[in-house]
Amino acid sequence: MSEKVELFHFDDIANEYHGESLYCGLCSSLSLQVDKDCTITVYGQINPRSGEYFKLQVLNEETMEDLSNITKAGNYFVHIAGCYRVKFEVENAAGVSVGGVFGKYHYPSADVDLDGYATTEYVDSKVGAATEEEFKEMLNEVLYGSSPSEPDESEQDVPGVTPVYKLAEPKNFIPDNKEYIDTGIKMFDSINPKPNWTVLFEVQYGENVSSISNTYVLMHCMNEESPWPGLAIQVVADGQLNLNIYKSVSSFGMMPYFKEQKHKCAIRISDSTAKRWRADLTPIELTIQGYDSAVDKTLILGAYQKLDGTKGRFFDGTLYQCIVYNSALTDEQIETWMKK
What we know:
Elements: E1 4-10, E2 16-18, E3 22-23, E4 29-34, E5 39-45, E6 54-55, E7 58-60, E8 66-67, E9 74-79, E10 85-91, E11 96-103, H1 132-143, E12 165-166, E13 171-173, E14 181-182, E15 197-205, E16 217-222, E17 230-235, E18 241-245, E19 248-253, H2 255-260, E20 263-270, E21 273-278, E22 284-287, E23 300-301, E24 304-305, E25 311-312, E26 317-325, H3 331-339
């Protein structure tokens, strides 16, 4: 179920509206209900440094038609994974009410009934201004008028545990395209006490991956200066897929293995120890060495980032799954996911 809500009203707008942009957080989807015909174009900002916005496609949830903008009343779905902020350009909107629900997963939210939004009074609640519990309470009140139901565990990757990030859909990284995904997660911005994390992922190398040191980076949450604190998963000189976490190193396997087919892997960080899994290998546990400095960087998928935010060493291959939990899952939970 979606956890954050933002309501928009255009009742007092004569012809057009250029509102403030909205912070997306870790959300990857946005469902909208428009109660009257008007024109709404949705824009997303991927790189907050550049300030540029790009037009986003809109999906009509009833007809499943892919649109460049909204022109009629109805329920719509916008895929916003990778966006830092979104904003709306609205025309001919006199007397129009628009309701919106942010979600964490990439699918039209069939379980969310937006019928009540058109008559709901305006709520001035910027995303992030309220606590998560307050957002849940607000969303529940608007949508259901009763206590929220528990999520269906059969639909969860790890039953009973909600991730802080989930890759919306498989992503094929091509180095020449210089693409990456910023998850927005700062894994090591505070290390006292030591944080707990679990990362589940499934990956396959591209055919053109070669044995050149540190050329291809799959995940990166690290300060790129000595002593290189943080986490990186990258292809090293002999083609191995290596895990570097502060001064500790472990390998997920050799290049031919990851070229042949996709493979599931996992990392768990608990206090000062880490454990890495690959589906057909015995898990390896290691003590994290040099774990004494915080990292004010977000987790990047498909590239690495320098201290100034410049991206490079773009990955070559497909990341089929990436699920991040801000807790240390048990061996049983991780191994059950690995066997799915």
